[in-house]
Amino acid sequence: MKKYINVFIIFILVFSCKNESNPETESIQTNPQKAEFSIIIHGGAGSIRRDNMSEAREAMYRQKLEEAIRVGHNILKNGGTSLDAVQSTINILEDSSLFNAGKGAVFTHEGTNEHDASIMDGKTLNAGASAGTKTVKNPINLARAVMDKSPHVLLSRDGAETFAKEQGLEIVDPSYFSTEKKLKSLERVKTSEKNKVASFYDADLQNSKFGTVGCAALDKHGNLAAGTSTGGMTNKRWGRIGDSPIIGAGTYANNNTCAVSSTGWGEFFIRGMVAYDISALMEYKGLSLEEAAKEVIQNKLPNIGDQGAKGGIVAIDKDGNMAMEFNTQGMFRATMNDKGELYVGMFNK
Question: Which has the minimum average pLDDT: 37-46, 58-67, 184-193, 273-282?
């Protein structure tokens, strides 16, 4: 009998060790049973490495990611909609200068801050988006207003600004979005282009094509939603618009499959229609969310173009399973499920 007890104890210890692996090395988190509600967020993907970040700055990112996801989680926990959870969560990230959205938006070549955003309802497939705005404090609120209060999906620039004012959204002076760190990033990118400096030596230069914040959620009513907000690409020119306001590329939600928010080099995400492609693989090929996300981000995306497209996604399916897939050195991300279990990650390893 003693022999069997010892064997049992050893089995328990081994099993426990397997489940104590570092969660930051895992890009996928799934729930074996259908969740009542869940929420997942990202704050951008790129050259995010532990050796490039101080403990104090890492703590700042972790605190803000947790603050944001708890706002959305509380909405879902109290029976609120996935759309409200997505919008309110992204508001927190837009109001922080840590991320490339809202307050922390990067600068264009001309030294201005221009914002893009989108949101989508998985129940109705209704969507709203805005591009190139300069004075709307929270671009995700404008995207929501476009979806709810207009017959259109995407508004841009002056027209979007006018619509925002008509809807009573908060308007700020463009100087509100100006931050010293992002302005220095613009100067360094311009210098690197002028001197043809290799950008892989500098994390800020590597991340000049990345950024963005996003959220996907499943509510108690079984409805999915996703949203994305960004300041775009550092040093962008000629009114460039990336994937974030493009439904199917930067954002997609469908109650039959999943809700997805993308982050990365937008030109390639547009060409690959990344967010929709994940949903399509689930719908037409019967892949799981985990399988579809890996196929698109790890296999398809790097083969678009000749430079090795980089980025990632966060997604949630109709059963509450969550995916955090990226092919960069890191991605700011967090999840919370219906049990209140919180995960916050930043690095790939």
Answer: 184-193
Is 241 annotated as ligand-binding? yes
Provide the number of structural domains found in the chain.
1
User: Does 265 show up as a binding residue in the annotation?
Assistant: yes
Domain membership of residue 168 (yes or no) is yes
Half-sphere exposure of 196 (CA within 13 A, CB side): 0
Residue at 8 is within a domain? no
CATH number for the domain including 165?
3.60.20.30
Neighbours of 170 (CB within 10 A): 11
For this structure, is 335 an active site residue?
Answer: no
Please tell me the least confidently modeled range out of 95-99, 234-238, 240-244, 291-295.
234-238
Residue 82 domain boundaries: 27-347
243 known ligand binder: yes
Catalytic residue among 81, 212, 230, 257: 212
- ∠90-146-266 over CA atoms, to 5°? 55
Say whether pTM exceeds 0.85.
yes
